[in-house]
Design a protein that fits this description.
alpha+beta, five-stranded mixed β-sheet, 25% strand, binds adenosine-5'-triphosphate
């Protein structure tokens, strides 16, 4: 774990050093859990968004996009349940004065039991080799069965307390499990309190006339309140989806782990409206589709897993997370939720407007059911960054830091470098840049030795470097160097466009999904 922590620290400092992510307001000592994206970060982030947007809106003819405002009528958040129920249970340690989410402390305790069981299983697998039967082992090994029983009992007690919103019981679990504060090491806990995560501000110029409004904590409600507009003006027929990318704000109690948990972040959400009764079919469909979208990036299939929810939100009848193996463990990157007709019905009730769909085939009106896919851009960014980062030992004792970014997501696709700054080579290199730049993000670099220039591009994940030398002037060929293999080949300038395009275009990624 310590080693993983080290790697994560290196990734965070690499992200800063190479212009991916900066702490917000850094020259004023920063603002907690708020981050800015730098010159390379914004490109990577935009490419992730484009991959999602095009996978949704180009590949599905029944999905359209919208861009709704961050400010919305405050009653929307009453209707959605956020004013009353968008809370996290918080607890403070009196000695360290640190604040925690009570549910997270307990979830981490459950994860500790799981880890213990997994370790025993791994040990036994090593011992028994091919003949190892995991199910049998879990049932018959006394020590493991005991840990599993404790874990399951805790899980059940926790789920019950959360479902009932029983804050005293949450505290009692923390006490009974002897959970200590990681900073002070003590069990001197306060009571558990509910904390609403929405940011509130005022709209309007006069003190009396001002209206309290919220910064949206999710983009989804902007879609629900526009359901009728889109359905009518787009003449949409069920099933159909509305996609949106935009900022969301949550006053998170504990904001740790870099851009994993932020107070201002970005979501990519799609609400898919279906006939009542068909929601499970589409839930299964979207679960599978979304995992395919992730896996197509080639970061490694073993890095993903589903986590089905046992405790469902008040509006859901099925929910699953897609988790990604971050350096700090498997963590949620995306949620897929079957939200029933909860949101549309609530908005119908609170607005007094009829929000229904007239089904011409059934010749009746009803409230559609909804399947939601909701993914955080920043968490996606973090998963891509973490799994791409490598410190590589090279032959001859040299090392390099390389980002093996999926080529279609890389901020810069190719860098053009004259071998020396004379003899007409810079002019020739510029000529190539001026041609390629219309299709690819292309850098020109003439500073330092060619080796240093390669390392700089490796560190930001540029898939191709093109070196212009004296031979280029004679026969119109250049050296094309590939980031991951570092292999170089001599190719004609005329072929560059095709060679690069085949590898870096978003097209090739999207085609994997078709
Ligand atoms: P968590 O349990 O981690 O707080 P959540 O279940 O509340 O997340 P959702 O409300 O389902 O998250 O939001 C959908 C997606 O939005 C998440 O899968 C995640 O990728 C992203 N997200 C949610 N909260 C944050 C945050 N504070 N910072 C960054 N991304 C977030």
């Amino acid at each position: 774990m310590a080693q993983q922590d080290d790697v994560f620290k290196k990734i965070v400092s690499h992200a800063k050093e190479y212009g991916f992510v900066f702490q917000s307001s850094e020259i004023y000592d920063g603002l907690s859990a708020v981050y800015d994206y730098g010159q390379n970060g914004v490109e990577l982030k935009n490419n992730i968004k484009r991959y999602w947007w095009e996978a949704m809106t180009l590949l599905h003819e029944n999905i359209v996009g919208i861009d709704s405002a961050i400010f919305m009528h405050p009653t929307i958040w009453k209707a959605s349940g956020h004013v009353d129920a968008f809370n996290d249970p918080l607890i403070d340690n009196r000695d360290s004065k640190k604040r925690y989410r009570a549910d997270v402390l307990i979830e981490e305790q459950i994860a500790k039991y799981d880890e213990k069981i997994n370790k025993e299983v791994a040990k036994a697998r090593k011992r028994f080799g091919e003949s190892f039967d995991e199910t049998m082992f879990l049932q018959t090994n006394g020590r493991v069965a005991e840990t599993a029983a404790k874990r399951n009992a805790l899980h059940e007690r926790f789920a019950e307390a959360m479902n009932a919103g029983n804050l005293e019981e949450l505290r009692q679990i923390i006490v009974d499990e002897e959970i200590v504060c990681p900073i002070s090491g003590t069990r001197n806990w306060t009571e558990v309190r509910q904390f609403n995560l929405m940011f509130k501000t005022e709209m309007g110029s006069t003190a009396d006339g001002a209206m309290a409004v919220y910064l949206r904590p999710e983009t989804a409600q902007g879609i629900f309140v526009n359901y009728l507009n889109v359905q009518k003006t787009g003449r949409m027929r069920l099933p159909f989806g509305i996609a949106q990318i935009g900022k969301a704000f949550r006053n998170e109690i504990v904001a740790r782990q870099f851009i994993f948990r932020m107070r201002e972040f970005e979501q990519m959400e799609m609400q898919f409206f279906v006939q009542p009764g068909r929601e499970m079919e589409y839930f299964a469909y979207w679960k599978e589709q979304r995992l395919r979208w992730h896996k197509a990036l080639g970061l490694g299939d073993d890095k993903y897993r589903y986590h089905d929810h046992e405790k469902l939100a008040h509006y859901a009848n099925a929910a699953t997370d897609i988790e990604f193996r971050m350096p700090f463990g498997f963590k949620e990157v995306e949620g897929i939720h079957s939200r029933t007709d909860f949101d549309l019905s609530q908005h119908e009730k609170f607005s007094g407007k009829k929000i229904q769909y007239f089904d011409p085939e059934r010749n009746e009106s009803y409230t559609p059911y909804v399947i939601e896919t909701s993914i955080g851009v920043d968490r996606m960014f973090l998963s891509v960054l973490c799994s791409s980062y490598e410190e590589q030992q090279l032959e001859g004792g040299d090392t390099r830091v390389v980002l093996h970014l999926p080529e279609a997501l890389a901020p810069v696709k190719c860098a053009v470098m004259p071998l020396v700054k004379k003899d007409g080579l810079p002019e020739k290199a510029r000529e190539i840049v001026n041609d390629l730049k219309f299709d690819f993000a292309t850098h020109y670099d003439e500073k330092d030795s060619i080796g240093k220039r390669y390392r700089r591009q490796d560190a930001i994940g540029t898939p191709f470097c093109i070196t212009v030398d004296h031979q280029t002037l004679e026969d119109g060929t250049v050296t094309l160097r590939e980031r991951d293999s570092m292999q170089q080949q001599r190719v004609a300038v005329a072929d560059l466009h095709r060679l690069i395009h085949d590898r870096v275009s978003l097209n090739s990624l999207l085609r994997k999904l078709a």
